[in-house]
Protein: Tetrahydrofolate dehydrogenase cyclohydrolase
Amino acid sequence: MAACLAAPRASLLPQAPGKQAQAAAALAPRARPRVLAARPQQRAAARRAMTVTAMAAKLIDGKAIAEDIRKELKAEVEVLKAKYGKTPGLAVVLVGERKDSQTYVRNKKKACEEVGIVSYGTDLPETASEEEVLKVVADYNADPSVHGILVQLPLPKHIDEQRVLDAISIEKDVDGFHPLNIGALAMRGRDPLFVPCTPKGCLELLKRSGVQLSGKRAAVVGRSNIVGMPAALLLQREDATVTVIHSRTPDAQRICAEADIIIAACGKAEMVEGDWVKEGAAVIDVGINAVDDPSAKRGYRLVGDVNFAQAAERAECITPVPGGVGPMTIAMLLRNCVDGATRAFAAGH
Structure:
């Protein structure tokens, strides 16, 4: 399946109509009243259509690439079953009743089902103690049928998230946040058992879209432990020259505009504007932000950390929001779980 969908570039300059066109326009019925009478949803759709027409960049289709990866993983799981008579298992621990967390957990369980991974889960009440959560993690650490453990964040305020995450066995740390995994990622000549899912997905999008990394300049906008920092480390491993842009970076726009590759993960809606993007750059937008939009059915729309319309006029390829990085995060979680199971089976566990 093609990863990038080409869209035509439309001229941004007004074109002077010829005499025939002027005559035809004079005879044609005026459509303006119909446009003004259109429903908000129709006007929003028209704006989206105009944006696609004007863009020059290729869309990096994260949904399509994630679907390809899930198909590959399903085939790998079948091979593991045939070879070892065992199936990879992923355990998810949910504490509390946050609706968004419950939705994320359901999506992860559904994704496991699609590729043949056995899904385990423990739901604890909001009032669960830290020791109770640690006991659940310890039990999954000791369970040989579980090859990945994921504790859904955020945890209730009375629980020390860091202590809980550090308690996960490094062999089952499919989120890739264990200090030993991050430390190995940062060191030349060492390989982590797992890499954090979102930055791993960003690199996979670039590679499967044919973007050259070695010898290229890359800018990572944001320095979080979850995305920015590991994304920068992964780009360095691919021999890119990496600059991390953060809230204290002077002249951030100029620095970013020199990059061949941009990974935006700053958590600020449309911060990376068109003049931040070098002509022909590859842009990966990790952000997902809700901004007010009265014309939208829900009263808001989702945008990334990149001004998509502006950046798409300059970039070679770009991820949309939604439908870009998001689907890849779960795909990489499944990838990590299957990799963990493969190592465990090969070791006789």
Summary: The radius of gyration is 23 Å. Residues 9 and 56 are 5 Å apart (CA to CA). The first helix runs from residue 19 to 27. The chain is about 45% helix and 15% strand.
